Amino acid sequence: MEEILQGISPIPRPRRKQPQEWKLISLRECPTPEQMQLCETPEGALEYWRTHVIQHPYFSPEVECFVVLHLNTRRRIRGHHLVSIGIMDSVLVHPREVFRTAIAANASALVLMHNHPSGEAQPSEADIRVTRDLIRAGQVLKLEVIDHVIVGNPGHCSLRSMGYFY
Questions:
Q1: pLDDT value of residue 19
Q2: CA–CA separation, 103 vs 1, rounded Å?
Q3: 142 conformational bin, left if phi > 0, alpha if psi -120 to 50, beta if neither
Q4: Which domains does the chain have, with CATH numbers?
Q5: Were 69 and a residue from 24, 49, 111, 142 both cysteine, which residue would form a disulfide, CB within 3.0 to 4.6 Å?
Q6: pLDDT by residue (tens digit) across 114-143?
Q7: Which H or E run contains 73?
Q8: Which residue stretches of the chain are H helix?
């Protein structure tokens, strides 16, 4: 019997998860408040997208990518967060993921953005539904969702301009 037991290794016990401490860090230096880009229009958000978001190492124009721009109280862009990378015609977005970094980064307001790889910038029913859900979640958290801009090629579409914000 001992010979048989010697060949068997003990069953590993599951390890308990240790508490973790989190720290939000900047990936690169941000501009001073005077140098931060103003974002009061969809065109301002689109300019930021074309300057900064497409340079993100995980961004791919071949799939939908959902990005949140974090704004300060003066509507200047403090930074952005690539929330989710989807597939060719959809992307999974949850309020928890959208607002997590906005809260940690002390954002005052948000601009939601995502691309349509097809080039067509018109919103789908899913885009409209997600936008309304995120507006409601932002109201609970007292974080204003300024706009949701869909980036096509070459154009763009603002859901606020189309009247989907109430």
A1: 74
A2: 60
A3: left
A4: 37-51+59-157 (3.40.140.10)
A5: 111
A6: 999 999 999 999 999 999 999 999 999 999
A7: none
A8: 2-6, 42-51, 95-104, 125-141
